[in-house]
Every structure is written in C-alpha cells, then in structure tokens.
Amino acid sequence: MFEAGQKRRKFAVGNWKMNGSIATNKALLEKLAAGVKDFHDADCVVCVPYPYLCQAQQLLQGSNIAWGAQNICSTKNGALTGAVAPHMLVDYGCRHVLIGHSERRSQFHETDDTAAARFLAAQEAGITPIFCMGESADERDSDWTEYIVGRQLDSLIRRFGPYVLKNAILAYEPLWAVGSDQPATPEQAQEVHAFIRKRIARCDAEVAARVPILYGGSVTAANALGLFSMPDIDGGLIGRASLKAEEFIAITRAANQAAARN
Ligand code: 13P
C-alpha cells in the first residue's frame, strides 16, 4: 500500500538507442558503475541494444545500475524472424524495457495497439515497462498535446485498467525535444506530467500518486536538476547524454539530489 506522503523514487534511465560497441560500452559501463555507486536515493538504469545485454549483465551485476532493453516482442516463442521474446530478456537479467518510444512508433510503425500488447507481455514476464508518450511539434502548435498524450495513456488504461500502472514507469517525451537540443522547460514538462497524473487519478488516486513519470528530450547535466525538481517529474529518460560517462553520472547525481530533497 502506498502511504500518504510516501516519496516516489527518482530515476535516471539511459536509452542508448542504436549506439555502442563492445569496447566503448566497457569503458562507459565501468566508469558509470564507479561514478554512481554512492547514489542511493535514485535508480540508475541503462537500456542497451539487444546484442549488448550479455555484456551489460556481466559488467553491471553487483553494481547499483540496472539494465534493460529497448523493445520486446509481445509473443512468447515462434516463427517471428528478428523478434526477441520476453523470456529471452529475463535470461539476461533485464529489469526494464522501453515500450512505444517515438522512434519505434514513427520509424517502425508501432501503434497504440502493438505498444499495449508489448507493455503487457513485459509485465507478465516480470519486467517493468517504461511506456513512452509525447506529441509532435505540429500537435503542440495545434494545442493537441493533451489529446495525444491522453490517447496514448488511455490506450493502456482502457484495455487493462488503471492497476496495470502499479508496476510500470511512464515517460513523457515530446517529439520536438527528442534529439533536438531544445528541451521542454521544467514548467512545460511539469504541466504535461501533472495532466498525466490527474488523468490517472480520475481512475485511481493511489496509482496516480505512485507511478513514476520521467521526462525525456534533450536532458543534459545542465538542465537535469531543474527538471527533476518539479513535483510531478520523477527523473529522466536520456538519449545522447547517457552515452557520455561524466554527463550521465552528473544527471544521475541530479536525480539523487532531487530525490533526497523531496
Ligand atoms: P535525447 O536525450 O538524445 O534528446 O533523446 C531522448 C530520448 O529519446 C530518450 O529516449
């Protein structure tokens, strides 16, 4: 039971996207493991490309960094060339998986339906889904942010009910801020995070109070603390800056500091 006044944890989640090599990963993960070892108030996670899950497991076991994948297949086994089943991620110790990232939606034709199916498959395998939502620049300009983000959120709640969010992380990633060096301001992000939490609270206040909502889109060491200090922002989902050890350590430090202050 989530006690009134109980704090939500903060997260720094790195999304490596399609980057890395055995050699660069080793250097990065070793520096990260040493750099975040004293941060106990926030959770540090890296979501790596599939081929590097084994390396992440070997290098991070026993550290305070968790690792995960960037996608999952909703089917358990079978004739699905190129797909990776939930139990395969479990075999490599994955605790998290990204679901419905905007790059998957826009470049790999993933939909609310397929994202919802993947979300459930992850949960059923005991992996925490990190479900991504966000509007494009045109949609924001047309004042559709709440409509788009609300629709993406409802694609889970309508299918599975609000309790499915008990063991999940949400991420607000406005498409215009991803990879753009144009982050949302803390106030802009907070407004959407508060909208997401209120919409969940219409169904269940306790679930709404408990679910972590991360912000993603051009997070850096310089802007992380400002974003993570907002009341409904529970840390970040970080792309480019998660590939630089010093930068990602500083972002994790910011998550830790914001959590300790809460
Ligand atoms: P950047 O941090 O590179 O903008 O990417 C954000 C993102 O897409 C994380 O999932």
Low-confidence stretches: none
- Rounded to an integer, what's the Rg over CA atoms? 17 Å
Helix content estimate: 40-55%
Number of helix segments?
Answer: 11
Q: What class, by secondary structure content?
A: alpha/beta
How would you spell out the order of helices and strands? EHEHEHEHHEHHEHHEHEH
Domain module count? 1
> How many E-type strands?
8
CATH top-level class: Alpha Beta
Principal-axis shape equals globular
Q: Find the CATH topology.
A: TIM Barrel
Could you give me the name of the CATH homologous superfamily? Aldolase class I
For the sheet with most strands, the description reads: 8 strands, parallel, barrel
Task: Write a concise synopsis of the structure shown.
By secondary structure, the protein is an alpha/beta fold. It contains 11 helices and 8 strands. The longest helix has 17 residues, at 245-261.
Describe it for me?
The chain is an alpha/beta fold and 262 residues long. It has one domain: TIM Barrel (Alpha-Beta Barrel), CATH 3.20.20.70. The chain contains 11 helices and 8 strands. It has an 8-stranded parallel barrel with strand order 1-2-3-4-5-6-7-8, surrounded by 5 helices. The protein is globular and about 45 Å long. The mean pLDDT is 96. The structure holds 1,3-dihydroxyacetonephosphate. The site of 1,3-dihydroxyacetonephosphate has 14 residues, from strand 8.
